[in-house]
Structure formats: C-alpha cells, structure tokens
Amino acid sequence: MQATMRPSKHILFAILTSTLLLAAESASAQQITGTPGSPSATTTINGKQLPAPAPKFGGVIKDNAMQSKAWWPPRIVPPKDSPNILLIMTDDAGFGVPSTFGGVIPTPTMDRIAKAGLRYNRVFSTALCSPTRAALITGRNHHSVGFGVIAEQATGFPGYDSIIPQSKATIGRILRDNGYATSWFGKDHNTPTYEASQVGPFTQWPTGLGFDYFYGFVGGDANQWGPNLFRNTTQIYPWIGHEGTLKMDRSDPNAEIWPVTGKESSWNLITAMADDAIDWMTRIHQSDPSQPIFMHYIPGASHAPHHPTKEWVDKIEAMHLFDDGYEKLRERIFANQQRIGVIPKGLKLTPWPKDILTPWEELSPTAKKLFIRQANVFAAYVAYNDHEMGRVIQAFEDLGKLDNTIVIYQNGDNGTSAEGGPLGTFSEVAFFNGVQPPVDVQMKFYEAWGTEFAYNHMSAGWSWAFDTPFDWFKQNASRLGGTGQNMVISWPNGIKDKGGLREQFLHVIDYVPTLLEVTGIAPPEYVDGIKQEPIEGTSFAYTFDAKNAKAPSRHKTQYFEMMGQWAMYHDGWLMSTKVNRAPWDAFGEANPDPLNNQIFQLYNLNESWNQAKDIATQHPDRVKKMRAMFLEEAKKYQVLPLNASVGARVAAARPSLTAGRSKLEYTRPMTGLPQGDAPYLLDTSYTITADITVPEGGAEGMIVTSGGRFAGFGFYLLKGKPVFLWNLLDLERIKWEGPDALAPGEHTLEFDFDYDGLGVGTMAYNSFSGLGRPGTGTLKVDGKVVATKKMEKTIPIILQWDESFDIGSDTITGVNDADYSPPFPLTAKFNKLTIDIDRPQLSPADIKKLEEGLKKVEAGRE
C-alpha cells in the first residue's frame, strides 16, 4: 500500500500564510458595516460579477427556529463617501450657445457650475443624437454599441442596428448593482423603434438598461406641450387638466400671419421634468439619506421643436440679441470667447459660407423679421431649460448633498442643428420629408412660433453662428461644428480648483471610466453571466487635480464617422473629409464610396484649433497614414460598411411588429402604438375597413388615426358623417366626407387608396423617384361610393414620429384642429377594423431600369 505523503511544516506554514494574506486583502477591499448577518449590515462588492453572487448563508439551521440562528445577507452599498452623480447633457447645442463659453444666451446655471469647478473646452461628441447618448452611457464608441446612426435610421449591420449589446453594460447598470439609486430623465433615443411599443421587450428601455426610474419620452424629439411621455414603461398624460385656451385662427388662408390668441398651457415638459426629478431625489433621500444617487438628466432642449414658455420668449425678445443678424452674432460670440479665454488667442474665424447661407444684408425685411423670431424662440428655449436644470441642482443643495455631488453639465450631444435648412421651418416634420416651406408660408406661423401650433426650427444661419468658433453643424462628423462641445464639472469634495480651464482632449466615451474611477467601482467582468467587452474610453479624473491642469491628454486617438463623413484624430492632429453634404440635403444621391471618394483635409489642432488652416497638401504621408489608421479603427469598432445615405435609411425596411404583414385586424380599441410598429401606409395602396354600430341619436369620434397635427391621417365620424382626412405636413389637408350622417345600426365604412408609384422597393437603389407619388382615394359607406378625390402628392418618408397609431380615440394632438380636439372618443360601437396593404410590385421593366441605375452607381466605385 502506497504511503500517504504529508507536507512539511514549512509548506503548511506557507500555505496558511498565503491564505491569511489573501483573506486580509479581500477584507480590506470589502467594506462591511454593522454586525454580519444582522438586518442593518451592509457591504461593498468587488463588482467583477453583476449582479453580485448571493453570499453563503452564515446562520444556523436546526429542526426548529428556537434552536436556529437567523442570518441576513448584507445590503450592497457603494464604497464609502461615493459621490452622488448628476450627469446633464443638453440637445443640439454647439460650442457658442451658452454664456459660459462666450455665447449671448444667458445660462446662469452652467455659469454657477463653472465657477464652482472646472470648464472643459475640448469635449467631443459623435455629431448626432442617439450615437452620442449610447457612447456616453456605455463608455464605448457609438458603432461598438450599435448606434452608428439614430435609431430611426437603423440598418441590419452590427454597428448600426440600434441594439446596445448585453456585453457592454451601461453606467446605470454598473452603479445600480453596486448600490446606487439610478434614474433617467428626459430623452431616450436609445431604444430600437421596433421595441418602443407596449408589447416590449423592455430590455432596451432605460429601465432595462440599469436605470430603475425613467421619466421621459422615447424617440428623437417631442412636443414639449404634449409629449409621448412615459413613467418607466407606462404612458402618462400629466398635462391633461392643465390645458390652456390657446387658439390659432387659420380661417383666412391668404392672411400674412395667422393670429394666435388665448392663454398657453400651464404645463410644459421642461418644467415638469425638473419637478419630477426633484420629487424622485427627495423621495430617495427621505427613504435612505445615505444612499447615493445617479441621475442622468437629458432634456429635449434645445432640439426642435423649440417650445419655451411665453415668459421666456418675452425675456429674450427684450434683450434684442439677434437684431443685427447671424454674421454679427458670430463675430460677437467669437469676441466674447477670446475675451474670457475659452479659445486660444490669435484664432481666426473661418469664412462665412455665402454659397449655402444667404448673407444677412441680402435677406428681405420679411425674412429678417421671421429669422429674428426664430432665434429669439431658440434662445428662450435654451435659457428656460438652463433655469429649470438650476432648480434640480439647487435641490441637491437644499438636501445637503451638493458638496459630495459630481455635477457634469455638457452643452449639447452634437453641434447646433441645421435641419431647419437655410430658411428654418415651422415644422421639422416637413424637413424629414424633404420639404422646405418658403418664407411667406412660414410667416403665417409667426405668432405660433414656439407654441403647440408649431414644430419649429430656426435658420441654419443661426446654427452656424451658434457653433462659433467652429463651422458646420450637427451631422457633420468631419468638422468641429458637428462634434466640438464644451462642459463644466463641479464636485466641492473632490475638485478644489475653482473656475479652472481644462483643454485636454475628451470624448463622451470618457465619462464612464471617469465616474468608475472616482467612485472606486470596478468595471464588471461579467453581467448576467455575459462576459463584458472592454470599456473604450479613457478616464479624465486626473484633470481634477490642479497640478494636472496642463497635463498632456491621455485620450490620444479617436475616430469620427457619421453617414459617410469621417475624421481621424491622433495626438493633436485631425485628418478629415471635406463636407460634401449639408444636413438639410438628406434626399440626394449618396456618395457611393465614402471611404475613398473624398477630399481629405489635415489640421494641426495645436496651431489651427478650429480647423481654419488645411495643410493636407504639405503632409501627404501623414494623410495617408491617418487614412490607414481610420480603416483600422473602423474595422475594430464595427464602423464598416460605410454608408453615406441619409433619408433612404429612414425609409428603409427594419424590424417592426407589422413587418411583412399585408393584412391587419383589430377587434378592440387601443392607443399608443408608436410609428415604428404602426402600419406603414406611405408609398403604397391600401384599404381601411371599419365595421361599427351607430346607436340611437347618432355617433361621432375617432375610428383610427396615425400621426398628429403636423402629419398624419384620421378616419372618423364628424357630426355623424364619415370623414377620412390626410394632413400633409400641416401645409394642406385633403378630406373625403360623406354627405349624410349615419343612421342608427350597423355600418361598414371603407377608405381605399390607389397609389401611383414604385414605393419603398426603390430604396435599395437609393432612389426617391417612387416616393411621395400621387394617388386616388375613395370613401365608401356600406359598399356605396360617397367621395372620390385624387391626391397630387403624398407624404414620402415619415409621419409625425412622436404621435402614435390609435384606434377608438386620439391621443396628444389631432390631425385636424378645425374638426375636433383629442381624445375625441368614438361613441359608436367598435366592432372591427381591417387594414389591407397592397405594396407596389416592381415590373420587369422597372427592375431593369433600376438595375441599370445601380450599375452606374457601382461603376462610380471603381
């Protein structure tokens, strides 16, 4: 029998010592309070695995409770003295917007944080909404987390599918599982459009991404007077009961200005959101004053529609900030920036783009009047939002939390938007359908600008000025006007350098590693059993220390790409593609080879801080090297395949609850189905059939509607008469109406539309020739034709996206204010609704023609 081998005393001692050292190391890393096993015990976790594994039961279990010892698992808390975090980011605001960085719009809240902490003038975004937001909350590049473009443009490639992978957990999830109370207020533009309905799944909603409380809207923008609003995943209508008496008189189509009278609503989302945030944080504090909170506060301001209150419009108008036009505004902002030192001395402005933006002095007096109104409303929106965010910050102070709160206030998720085009627009919905209303049409909405009767956006001339000292706009990833933001941070307990300026290169992917470093929380290795991919950002916590005020940037390399325009930053150098598409030019033919078919520019940002001096011809080798570097980064971060199309991607097919279905049936009323999952009735033939029963005394109300005041359709009973109406971008309303009120009893109402076009099949060829074509509508009652009318043009791309598909009533706004006001419930009995969709089929001749066009496109790539 083989003898059992015994370890020597020295080996036993070494093993014991090693075990004790490991235990001591573990104990020092883990912070425990209270008696272990007691109800009040707490513990930190190493955070490698989220959620943390359940601890082993530490009590005693016998046959009966009297002989047993209870033991409670400790409550998980963050490391001692972990700060509260308020992470603010505004929307569509360029470098020159806030007063803190030389702008003319008063932003005293941002000023307050800057004076108490630090200013950063080299903070970079992705140039677009959803992508910046996804990068900010994950610490990864936007393509890495599926947001190469906005959710509404998603395509079936990993870098563009609008799905944040489970292998890349958000800062909300990490902090929550480490004991923080987490919340998200405002804009959620990171839920796939096809998962935004009440069907779910809700894994890509804020509450599914680690934020335990959500109050806001899902989508790119929202009517601030009546948004598509959610608390967690439940749609709410808190403005009901606060409606004003505002009316817009459109009775005279030839009037120069349509009068607006009455009192505006006492409810606006900008204020309501601050109220709700203060309520949430107070509730957490009163429940457990020791629990730190993480509040992600991202209002819709200053994204279109610009919807401030009249009080703020009056304040800004009294300041006469914009009377001398956008070029003078740009010069004034630039002078301010030099005076307060937030840009380098000796900097020169790039030229005014006379080829795309009409100089102020060449505008008509009417255009100037309209444009000044546009700018005043935008500025009022910015100032109003800053004021309300100030109330939230003050609430931290009132609760005694501000000293240990990191307040991060980033101005803009991208540069100022130019999606209103050179003239601006009374309705941004028109822009997304390729329509630019002329000045005389927009003047009719002069008094409505900023109210619930406009979905307004300003002239791109103002946008260019608000991006000072840079040029170009939101969407332009190759120019700093699209990506150059600024930011302020205060943290009284952690930042002692008051009012300092930091000029290190930062990107929005840097926030997550910075917050993890200052909280002492490690990035997880596994979340829900899924191995996590590395965080791609670089912590900038080192800049908090005054001795590092001039330290070299630790974020050395960063790519930029948006819809075929791109740039490569490396250690102070920026190689970029020359802008080949203005943001409002979303429907032209796209660059077939955006990787190579470009004019390349090169800038030494240490000498040409705002891309004023292109030195590409002097350094061809560096250009070549940085092009190769971009391709490496593009392969690494899922940027490929590059795609320069814009509008085509909005209209392109993507998952939907109605995808592939040509017949839809509904037997009960329902509301709130978002456009991403609603029946898509654009660029197609269709038939809508409603079976209803009219009671004695008649009936009225909405049968089915999709969209709202600024684009959509409605099928309803008006004083008993059947009506089908198309609202064409609030520019025209086409109505089919039966001559007689329906008698009591059962009726079948039918609207049939025969479309004259090729439809969305042309999207594969990047052609818009088949979209927005004419068609003929026929209204029938019990099989009898009662109205026939031809529409000479139809909506080509999208309805009003923040309005839903509703059956049996109408939510938020109606498609025709002259006929009814929501909710306009159907008083007839609803029996059944059927929608038959007959998508245009391409004929052999059509296919041959389009294939020839495609060959030309392919030839251009060679």
From TrEMBL:
Gene3D superfamilies: 3.30.1120.10, Alkaline Phosphatase, subunit A
Keyword set, alphabetical order: Calcium, Hydrolase, Metal-binding, Signal
Family: Belongs to the sulfatase family.
One Pfam family, short name: Sulfatase
Molecular-function GO term, any one: metal ion binding
Superkingdom as given in the UniProt entry: Bacteria
Gene designation per UniProt: atsA_4
Protein name in the entry: Arylsulfatase
Leader peptide range in chain numbering: 1-29
Upper classification of the organism: Bacteria, Pseudomonadati, Planctomycetota, Planctomycetia, Pirellulales
Domain named Sulfatase N-terminal: residues: 83-521
Keyword match Calcium: yes
Coiled coil: none
Record's keyword annotation contains Signal: yes
Enzyme Commission number(s) from the entry: 3.1.6.1
EC class: hydrolase
